[in-house]
Write a structure and sequence with these properties.
Layout: H1 11-24, H2 37-44, H3 48-60, E1 64-67, E2 71-74, E3 88-93, H4 101-114, E4 118-123, H5 131-141, E5 145-149, H6 159-166, E6 171-173, E7 184-187, H7 189-202, E8 208-215, H8 221-236, E9 246-249, H9 257-270, E10 277-280, H10 283-295, E11 305-310, E12 323-326, H11 329-344, E13 352-355, E14 358-360
Helix pairs in contact: 1-3, 1-5, 2-3, 4-11, 7-8, 9-10
Length: about 375
């Protein structure tokens, strides 16, 4: 059961969210009977009072209903809705302040407005456990289609996205997702990493490191995809890949990337075996790394060159403006709306639309070829 005692969120909320997630993924279906309150208390290892509070909230929201003497059941969802006539699109976003997705959102809004569609925005405020619930909520109120911008670092389709796909419901994902059959609009991440590394090589750097977006020993599909571009550039220019120059995140969330980069920068500063240039998984980690090395008196780019990925605004105003890989966020937003509206109206569209990144050269790596 998805209960975490160290999570500051109340236990009854965690229980309610887990039941909603099961309903959203069809593990519990309309009309299914829930276990008894005592059985739920045992399953979740919580008190009976906690279960009563969770069920009370779910009942008030209309997610479940009780029948006297018979038990508690999953409520029937609205059906028979003609989604194509409502002209409303739901945008599921985990964090409204994300420097990456906020740019996509603004262009999605412009495009939908020009097509006379309404946009409904829902943010889970960085809580992964609520993402499935938000998607289900949009389905229940009858949106025409969904744009999904998940910040999950798993990079694979969740059960409810799989269900959208099976049901042929109009949707498009604008955050990287590895599943080749899921409708997706995004950037060529491998090519972007190649461009960043190639630029460092052409500037004359040979000892080049990579800050990989993984958590400790856990893998990262996107981190490894960008690593492929990094290694491909090294191989093409016959430069040895040194695994000692690969650094790993120690924290998981997007907003922790800056701190992960800072801690890697401290590790770098304390080492006697340093690369002379760094390609970072994203701009937040690159900026955290830059702050740490500058704090330790290491010059940028004099002692270490840095290239990031994403082209967020903070990179422009950093102490040493950041060279980075620009993802065409405006174009992603426009393309996502185009794909979604075609799916809503039954027109054929490619499953994956991959756009080309570009390199933005600033001062952090030294702009002139050596």
């Amino acid at each position: 059961m998805a209960i975490n005692p160290s999570n500051p969120e109340p236990l009854y909320v965690q229980v309610a969210n887990d039941i909603k997630a099961k309903i959203a993924s069809d593990a519990l279906k309309s009309g299914d009977q829930l276990a008894t309150q005592n059985e739920l208390a045992d399953q979740y290892s919580v008190s009976l009072i906690t279960i009563k509070k969770a069920l009370s909230d779910l009942n008030r929201e209309g997610v479940i209903y009780a029948r006297a003497g018979k038990g508690t059941f999953v409520a029937t969802r609205p059906n028979g809705v003609d989604y194509t006539k409502l002209k409303t699109v739901g945008f599921v976003l985990r964090d409204l302040e994300s420097p990456f997705f906020s740019k996509i959102l603004s262009n999605v809004e412009k495009e939908l407005s020009s097509e006379k569609y309404n946009l409904l925005l829902s943010s889970s405020a960085g809580r992964e456990d609520r993402e499935d619930m938000l998607i289900q909520h949009f389905l229940d109120i009858g949106v025409s289609g969904l744009i999904i911008a998940s910040m999950s670092r798993e990079y694979i389709a969740s059960p409810i996205i799989r269900k959208l796909h099976r049901d042929n419901f109009p949707y498009v994902v604008v955050s990287y997702i590895a599943d080749e059959d899921i409708t997706y609009v995004g950037t060529d991440h491998e090519e972007g990493a190649f461009l960043a590394t190639q630029h460092l090589i052409k500037l004359g750097y040979k000892r080049i490191g990579y800050i990989n977006g993984v958590n400790g020993e856990r893998g990262s599909l996107l981190g490894d995809l960008r690593k492929q571009g990094f290694v491909r550039a090294l191989e093409q220019y016959k430069i040895h890949y040194n695994p000692q120059y690969e650094y790993r995140f120690q924290l998981r969330g997007e907003w922790d990337d800056y701190q992960s980069g800072y801690e890697i920068g401290l590790e770098f500063a304390a080492s006697s075996n340093r690369p002379e240039a760094i390609f970072a998984f994203d701009d937040l980690s690159a900026l955290g790394f830059q702050k740490a090395v500058l704090d330790k008196g290491i010059g940028v780019p004099k002692d270490i060159a840095i290239v990031g990925f994403d082209d967020i605004r903070r990179g422009v105003t950093a102490p040493v403006p950041l060279t980075t890989v620009h993802q065409p966020l405006a174009e992603i937003g426009v393309a996502a709306v185009d794909v979604l509206l075609k799916r809503i109206t039954g027109q054929p569209v490619p499953t994956r639309r991959i756009l080309k990144p570009t390199l933005i050269v600033r001062e952090s790596c030294g702009g002139k070829l050596r």
